[in-house]
Amino acid sequence: MVNLRGPIDVLVVGGGNAGLCAAITAGRAGARVVLLESATKDFRAGNSRHTRDVRYMHKAATEYVTGPYTEEEFWQDLRQVTGGETNEVLARLTIRASEELGEWMPANGVRWQKPLRGTLHLTRTNLFMLGGGKAMMNAYYDTACRLGIGIAYESEVGELIIRNGAFQSARILRNGASQEISAKAIVVSAGGFEANIPWLKEYWGDAADNFIIRGTKHNQGRMLKELLKHGAKPVGDPRGCHAVALDARAPKFDGGIVTRLDSPPFGIVVNKHVKRFYDEGEDFWPKRYAIWGKLIADQPDQIAYSVIDAKALPHFMPSVFPPVKAHSIDELAIALDLDPARLSAAVNEFNNAARPGTFDPGNLDDCRTEGIEPPKSHWARRIDTPPFYGYPLRPGITFTYLGVTVNERAQVVMQDGRPATNIFAAGEIMAGNILGRGYLAGFGLTIGSVFGRIAGREAARHVGT
Amino acid sequence: MSELDLLKDGERQLTICNACRYCEGYCAVFPAMELRRTFSKGDLTYLANLCFDCRDCYYACQYAPPHEFGVNIPKLMAELRTETYRRYSWPGIFSALFNRNGLAVTLITAVALMMILLPVLVFIGSDVLLATHLGEGAFYRVIPFTAMVLPPSIIVLYALAVLLGGARRFWREAGGGFSKVIDLRALWRATQDAFGLAYMKGGGAGCNYPDASFSQSRRWFHHLVFYGFLFALASTSIAAIYHHFLEWQAPYPLLSWPVALGTIGGIAMIIGTTGMLYLKWLSDRDPAAQSMLNMDVAFLVLLFLTSLTGLLLLVFRETPAMGTLLVVHLGMVAGLFITAPYGKFAHVVYRYAALVRYAVEQRRIAGQ
Predict the structure, then answer these.
(1) What is the DSSP letter of A130?
(2) B198 in A contact zone (CB under 8 Å)
(3) Where does A14-172 have alpha helices with state H?
(4) Which of A65, A81, A118, B173 could be cross-linked to B42 through a Cys-Cys bond (beta carbons 3.0 to 4.6 Å apart)?
């Protein structure tokens, strides 16, 4: 059992990737570190347990990446996805510091996945953790334990006591009892608020009731709210969240990666009134799936249905829930609880509009529709080969963009523009500084790792170790 | 859980794995899984026997219990393997021996021991059994040569026949045709993987065994057992050659091949089985199947006792204890081979068959 009564130099709130990077870095610098994790040991590490890969800058190919990824290219990628909603100073700092992750992470127990024939194709930009995020977090927790860092599970901070812009103590709830913990510095790495449905409702209304949360139920945003309440300067669009199309049968929380569905580009997608509402074949699915969450959130009852035929089935990753299967479109409509006449009409209209072409799932092919609105620009093959399959879709929230402003030392910046001396933030809670919009695969871990390390280093420096 | 429920749950769990694929770098199971979209009984049997229970995937799994998906691949695979051993054993009536394998193995060994001891007492007499025998042919004064060689040969041939019959059925159900066995490169690959225990390395850092931390200890103890067993087998084979071709009868001097190899093998097996039992004792029960654990312990204890009595026989072969030790050792050996097709020994054939299947499959894909 970790001792919370003794003197603590650095208190880390939140045991995900950023928190562990901070704790390990501060611990290595000689600080006495205690880390509070609100989940049980089994569900520790927040959304990091669902991650897969990390994006990092590197000068040359290695055993694990196929080629170089320069600062400039990385920066251009980021600028493009954020549409400029990024702080260039912090972004470039993150990109440059990410170069060290290729060595720092293995030095702290993380293993990379080697190329496998026929399965995972190595990428040029991202490193894949062997076993994924939970394996990575297990390694970090082991390292933290070896460094003598105190880890308290099921310990949730309710309130931060901050006076004159300086952190003094935290009131926490642990084993059903409230207690106050003092520390010389605090690193807040407690994630966003995507699991807080009432908070999401402030921006989305009742639609938020139909959102599926892909990650931990623990990301209630309590620390974000506390910091904002104490005058931290917000960053990022409060309404903004990364939302993807998920199988509607996914669990409400913690479904992670497996509930995503890659079928839409190979068929049509209709809403509950059996109306198509967006070009399903606009671009490759990995480039488009992130906009579909928002598209479905804007449909009545936040539900949509992907309809495909037997030809389409082999072209996307197997889904975790079996599709609804039927031998006719009528039958499929009934099974999906849609109006059969309307679905037949929608499929017919689409089939008649589909121009002949050469289907090629690996390229933006010439199979497209003519004369219907919205069009389908690629992979528009007639839906005519039974059995037919349908998947119900819902918006799935990955993370929220609202955060607190930080400076290059990871200090939280207050409304008056001055940094708090001993309050540091890392991870999703400050990612909005750098990724104000959009998404770049594996970049959440990059920000968390880089700023976790900066926060740990600066917190340790602040307490004079 | 009934076999049908087990197969259904297997399909459910692997469908989750197949949509995730985070564990694909750990072992052969996941790359093999990725070649499939559905999981028939044969597929599940094949994948289960490719699993070396390293448990890396269990601790890395974001869906492991208490997550509502309850993905627990090592446990599932161990349960499926128990089913494999049961289903492919012959005759069917003996499949009950898998239900309480520890008890079955103990009783069979005890009966085998009695079947040796009683004739010795009746036909040879306790005075001969308890006397000191020295020089060439000493063992055969307690148990005549024919009695020592003929029944064990029959038992070994029987065990081999049952195991190979099982392997054949396994091969067919796992989707391999006969022609696929004749892939020499695949056989070589599978043999390397088997002799190196490639998949007890997990993703390289070893098994998560006995607990969540990575360790190579299970692999090294298993190596000691396996190679110790091969040494003991070599010792017996050389002794047979000496006997038949050189007309040189046991016991052999300490500095002879049979004694040297047997001693090294015996010591290796004692260390290996003790180590494996110790690791099992410590091991996390959550990713384990009780039925398999039961089988493992029975097999390891019997191997341990066989090695121990063999070494004791060597040490005390020039004392009045020799006769008794010889009877006990032969009883253990008999128990080991009689139960070979009806216990954990069977893993040797099914695992090897699964590794061959995997090597064939991977080579075919690479060739495409």
Answers:
(1) T
(2) no
(3) 17-28, 71-82, 88-98, 101-107, 133-146
(4) B173
* CB nearest to A320's CB, from B19, B30, B57: B19
Does the beta-carbon distance from A49 to B23 stay under 8 Å?
no
Position A317 pLDDT exceeds 90? no
Tokens at A110, concatenated: 């993380």
- B225 membership: H or E segment, kind and range: helix B217-245
Residues of B with CB below 8 A from A318's CB?
Answer: 15, 18-19, 37
A117 falls in which pLDDT band (50, 70, 90)? Answer: low
Give the closest of B16, B56, B366 to A131, CB-based. Answer: B56
Q: Who contacts B16 (Cβ-Cβ below 8 Å, separation ≥6)? A: A258, A320, B63, B69, B71
Tell me the average pLDDT across A197-220: 95
Tell me the backbone φ, ψ of residue A419, rounded to 5 degrees. Answer: -75, 145
pLDDT > 90? residue A3 = no
Same domain, B140 and B169: yes
Q: What is the pLDDT at residue A4?
A: 82
Beta carbons within 8 Å of A396's beta carbon, 6+ residues apart:
A211, A212, A213, A214, A243, A244, A245, A246, A250, A255, A259, A260, A293
CA distance A48 to A191: 10
What ipTM is given for this predicted complex? 0.94
Per CATH, the homologous superfamily of domain A10-196+401-462 is FAD/NAD(P)-binding domain (3.50.50.60)
Is residue A277 a contact partner of residue A296, using CB atoms and an 8 Å limit?
no
Q: Residue A121's pLDDT is what? A: 66
The answer to whether B8 faces chain A, any CB pair under 8 Å, is no
Beta bridge partners of A391: A306
Residue B310 near residue B232 (C-beta atoms within 8 A):
yes
* A255 to chain B: closest CA residue: B63
Q: Is the pLDDT of residue A175 over 90?
A: no
B20 touches chain A (CB under 8 A): yes
Q: Please tell me the CATH code under which domain A244-396 is placed.
A: 3.90.700.10
Query: Which amino acid, one-letter code, is at A315?
Result: H
Contact, B186 vs B356, CB < 8 A?
yes
Domain residues for the domain of B17 are 3-88
Domain(s) of CATH 3.90.700.10: residues in chain A: 244-396
pLDDT at residue A119 in the model: 45
Q: Transcribe A406-441 into DSSP letters.
A: B-TT-EEEBTTSPEEEEEEE-GGGTGGGT--SS--T
